[in-house]
Design a protein that fits this description.
Blueprint (H helix, E strand, L loop, with lengths): L1 H4 L2 H24 L12 H7 L4 H25 L2 H23 L6
Helix pairs in contact: 2-5, 3-5, 4-5
């Protein structure tokens, strides 16, 4: 379970980027789209900076997410229960989803 929870946010962000690049690569010959190297702008971290978050804010959120995922992984090891593992996995997925959702949305002006 630990091997699933700890790298969760990094893997999900990379999967999204890969899916975007694959989809665009298939359309490129017909539509004259941008090169695959330009697909990096769809990365969640890049979206967050494009939407007004500072690098320090992004690093802080990712660090906090990693702490949460590490705590969930440690809890999974300590409790060693399949039911708890499923619950902790869902909680980790929700935490990753929230952070990635926040990165993909424009910051609101105060």
């Amino acid at each position: 379970m630990v091997t699933v929870i700890v790298p969760m946010h990094r893997d999900r962000d990379t999967d999204h980027e890969r899916e975007q690049a694959a989809g665009r690569a298939q359309l490129r010959p017909r539509s004259g789209m941008q090169p695959v190297a330009d697909d990096q702008v769809t990365h969640f971290y890049q979206r967050a900076t494009n939407h007004g978050s500072s690098v320090l804010q992004i690093v802080g959120e990712v660090f906090a997410l990693n702490i949460v995922l590490a705590i969930l992984a440690g809890t999974s090891i300590t409790l060693a229960s399949t039911g708890i593992d499923v619950l902790l996995l869902a909680m980790g997925g929700a935490a990753v989803g929230i952070v990635l959702f926040r990165f993909s949305r424009a910051k609101r002006s105060a």
